[in-house]
Predict the 3D structure of the following.
Amino acid sequence: MNEPLFSFKNRWFTISVGALLVIFLAAAFVGLVWLPRAHAQDPNLSLWDAICSAAGAPRTFQNAGLPDERAVFPSSVIVSNEMMGPPDAVSVGRGATLALQCSMCHGARGTASSGTDAPHLAGQPPSSTYKQLRDYKSGHRISAVMQPLATNLSDQDMRDLAAFYSQQTRETLIRHAALAPEVPRLVSNGSPMRNIGACATCHSPGVARAATPILDGLPEAYLRKQLEAFKSGRRANDINQQMRNAAHQLTEQEIDLLAKYYASR
């Protein structure tokens, strides 16, 4: 007596279903477990994290160098356009006194000496300076020099320093005055196919983006060092991993080009 075609009583139907199931499980293991873990930067990636990564689900960034909640959140600062009030004379005056201990690296008025890796703070948006100081104090941004200095600053101290530096004018080097470098495409347009946004969208002087520094005129060595740190993940205090995602796609030549361009402005 012939068995129905689509019935487990049919030996050939059972064998076919079993073979398809084995192929499906093998493909799922290779695609969702083996390949993600083989190509993962973290050798301790869990099974669930590997499956989520292969499925395209974003994972919470974990910085192994930071304990507790600092390993999960890139910053302890809530970034918004209202995070800093307008600088007042009292705050700027207090900041000027506090800035005396910063002058060795950042200059008396926020313009770092030529040849150093220290960034210029003069003219930077107060929210940018404040956020970085907060991140140094909390340990979300690592620096053997800045962390001990920021540890003793109160929240008001950091606000006063940010207010002071925002009111200073960066001294432009004479050798840069006549330069008019061609704007790199990465600055003006980005690279959409690699998920890299235009640098000018966030870092131009005319863009009022909260807690975002102006890159014009920053030292070339500093810019290169920070881009490389974002690329490798050594620096991870960017909100939503925006800088890490962009820098990860940059080549060494592009990092060098961007550092030279912004340093010349």
